[in-house]
Design goal:
2 copies of one chain form a homodimer.
Chain A (H helix, E strand, L loop, with lengths): L3 H6 L20 H7 L4 H6 L1 H15 L4 E2 L6 H5 L5 E2 L5 E2 L7 H6 L5 H4 L1 H14 L5 E6 L1 H10 L7 H9 L1 H25 L3 E6 L7 H7 L1 H14 L5 E5 L6 H5 L5 E3 L6 H8 L4 E3 L11 H15 L5 E2 L12 H14 L4
Parallel strand pairs in A: 1-4, 4-5, 5-6, 6-7, 7-8, 8-9
Antiparallel strand pairs in A: 2-3
Helix pairs in contact in A: 2-4, 4-8, 9-10, 9-11, 10-11, 11-13, 16-17
Chain lengths: ~350, ~350
């Protein structure tokens, strides 16, 4: 197996910088759109053979060093009992948001083998299809991010719904966060047991919280998830990623994650000097840099690799998901340039 | 005149910490909603007597140390020739976005006395109504933020439209940014000449750019605006505020602004240690902290004042605009607690 990615997660020496791309299995790829045309977005998440097919596509096409399961962070939210809809070209809609104590009470801390068997089957089929070429990454959303969607009933600019619950009904909010945490820990463990070799916790809206609120509402919950994974599978790297969280780096490290995922708002050497050398980093090219001419993309890749300074423990990635209008050829160029420029002599 | 605010902008000693609140004249106030009921949002911006009335309201009600003109950052965009609409409870819509070289060519670097006389008249009437009680702050949007709206035609999650123009037609984008810069410089100068004693540049989406892009697309343009104001009115403090920009602080300082506005994602002492003591700071309570019980608000105010460590050059504010569902009584509590806890012995 190409184990560059796992070695970098553990800060071991590598032959060249490993790379994968957030949302690498997605709309920018014509081969993805062809499969997606057969069903809905949720249908694709829940049909193991199709989910496995699109998960493997970027391994063939891009030559990235890891696969990441095609799914959505809201799949376990639906499995907890909150109805979920996706409408074409729009964000998720949760028509029955979680607002009251009764709503929180009703939420189901489910058994993944029972309620999300399609996820585990997609993992098994992907692992088979990968033939040991690269490791498969599992993932889940972080408690604040999932709670934010559950309380708002969809996307939001200010996430005022969940924040008002945190401010005005803290006990209820802690109950909600606790239930999500327990669920996500089980969900990630089941993914590992089905064959994932690493897991990423996505805190998409984690940067909406200031330092003090991060310590109350995020750190203890993410810590619990990391500990639950590590207790049973100490060898499985945990990546913790969020956007707009550059002021929270030392606190993110306290979660116990092996790898901290960076967005594009901070230089990687600045982030590493804050984080110290005992944790790996992932990132951090601006996804919109892929709209630059090839030689400019190369220059920006060079800059990130130069700033990393040859240190172990760097997984290259974008600072956020690849955007649908990206030319797939530019993603290929990115991967080959990272492999070329990251080569250790 | 209560000159605490201006003294703090200049890092001079003050009797107590000055405070004003972003969007202090706004929907959370019933007295604002009463005036707003008489006309549309744009109508309110363009009717000097009404704009002056709502601008003064929070001075009476909250006892803040500065007034800020009631207006919108997109007013000069409309005056440049880009039609602008506001629909009830929604973001702005620009039905004829700026996409092509011809669109940029057509944009008008206007004379504010000619195209936005209502803004200047609102300033004159506000200054009269304030009877010298507190200084009036003028404002404008920063070039990237305004260009983002102009190219997208409204709000966006990823601002991919303007970023693609920056990546793929950099010359055209620089022309656009240049025209906006020239316009905004004239617009702010006219505001000062009409009676504003300080100006704030709002870079609402400034944090969407990474460090390298900030240096290409923001720093030189904001610098030019600051220099234009300073060249004619060296005594007028310039505040530069953006959200999600905590990784850009040293670069924000290079704009030459007198005051750097912080969002709530960074502790004020951390920000000050990065910025150094030769620039003032404004901020930085999380706007959603106003949903906490009063004693918790007090505790968070105490924490910010403690972290500022008694240094000159701190203007208290929220880290972003006050949100419409805020209880006005909590805003009053905030102001009185800042004045009480910020008192120099």
């Amino acid at each position: 197996m190409n184990d560059r990615f796992l070695r970098a997660c553990r800060r071991e020496p590598v032959d060249t910088t490993p790379i994968w791309i957030m949302r690498q299995a997605g709309r920018y790829l014509p081969q993805y759109r062809a499969v997606r045309g057969k069903t809905t977005f949720l249908g694709l998440c829940k049909t193991p053979e199709l989910a496995a097919e699109v998960t493997v596509q970027p391994i063939d096409f891009l030559d990235v060093d890891a696969a990441i399961l095609f799914s959505d962070i809201l799949i376990p939210v639906e499995a907890m009992g909150v109805p979920l809809e996706f409408h074409e070209n729009e964000g998720p809609v949760l028509p029955q948001p979680v607002k009251t104590a009764a709503d929180v009470q009703k939420l189901d801390v489910f058994d993944p083998t029972d309620r999300t068997p399609f996820t585990l089957e997609a993992i098994r089929q992907t692992v088979q299809a990968l033939h040991g070429r690269v490791p498969l990454i599992g993932f889940a959303g972080a408690p604040f991010t999932l709670a934010a969607y559950m309380v708002e009933g969809g996307g939001s600019k200010s996430w005022l719904g969940v924040k008002r619950m945190m401010r005005q009904e803290p006990q209820l909010a802690h109950q909600l966060f606790g239930k999500i945490t327990e669920t996500i820990a089980q969900y990630l463990l089941a993914q590992v047991e089905a064959g994932c070799k690493a897991v990423q916790i996505f805190d998409s809206w984690g940067g909406e919280l200031g330092p003090e609120d991060f310590e109350i509402w995020t750190l203890p919950y993410v810590q619990r998830i990391v500990q639950a994974v590590k207790a049973k599978h100490p060898e499985v790297p945990v990546i913790y990623f969020g956007t707009g969280m550059s002021t929270l780096l030392t606190r993110m490290k306290k979660t116990g994650a092996d790898v901290i995922g960076l967005d594009w708002r901070i230089e990687i050497d600045v982030a590493r000097s804050i984080l110290g050398d005992d944790v790996a980093v992932q990132g951090n090219l601006d996804p919109t840099a892929l709209f630059l001419p090839k030689e400019e993309i190369t220059r920006r890749v060079e800059e990130i690799i130069r700033r990393n300074g040859g240190k172990n423990g760097h997984i290259f990635n974008l600072g956020h998901g690849i955007t649908p209008p990206t030319d797939p050829e530019m993603a290929r160029h990115l991967v080959s340039e990272v492999h070329r420029l990251g080569r250790r002599s």
